[in-house]
Design brief:
Number of domains: 1
Oligomer: single chain
Radius of gyration: 16 Å
Strand order of the largest sheet: 1-2
Number of helices: 5
Strand content: 5-15%
Order of helices and strands: EEHEHHEHEEH
Helix content: 25-40%
CATH superfamily: Winged helix-like DNA-binding domain superfamily/Winged helix DNA-binding domain
CATH class: Mainly Alpha
């Protein structure tokens, strides 16, 4: 499956493994697990986030590291800034781009301490975390439910 980049609006194929990056090895298919992770990332409403562990728990497969790997390889095709670390620290190397998105979407942030490098705010995980319920309401369930289950 080819996804639309949230940032550019252009179609993006998945990134192949480093040794297979030649055009003749390019594929328009994502690995099955990656497809499932990206589907969850696309369900997260603007202004809300899920942790890597939340996504793995929702899928009932893998863990935070596996979700993080998928997002590192294929996340550019979805709203990557909505899948985050559990401590609310912004993705290293992408802090300013993520911060711009969070501000556009009204994602709850916590003021950075003066000791924080670059004084970059953190996500207010208590308020920003999404449980997978319809409407993007405050977190409540331990295991999120897909929005279409609430129709």
């Amino acid at each position: 499956m080819v996804r639309m980049s949230e940032e550019s609006g252009e179609r993006q194929a998945p990134i192949e493994a480093a040794g297979d990056a030649t055009p003749e090895h390019a594929s328009s298919e994502y690995p099955e697990y990656a497809e499932r992770v990206l589907d969850v990332a696309e369900m997260i409403p603007p202004g809300r986030v899920m942790t890597y562990g939340d996504v793995a728990e929702w899928l009932e497969e893998g863990g935070p590291r596996q979700v993080g790997r998928v997002m590192a390889l294929y996340g550019g095709a979805v709203p990557w800034w909505r899948v985050v670390r559990s401590d609310g620290v912004l993705l290293p190397g992408h802090e300013l781009r993520a911060l711009e998105r969070y501000r556009e979407e009204g994602t709850p942030l916590r003021q950075a301490s003066r000791a924080a490098q670059g004084h970059v705010p953190k996500l207010d995980m208590r308020r920003a975390r999404w449980d997978g319920g319809a409407g993007g309401d405050a977190a409540g369930d331990a295991r999120p439910q897909a929005p279409e289950a609430h129709t």
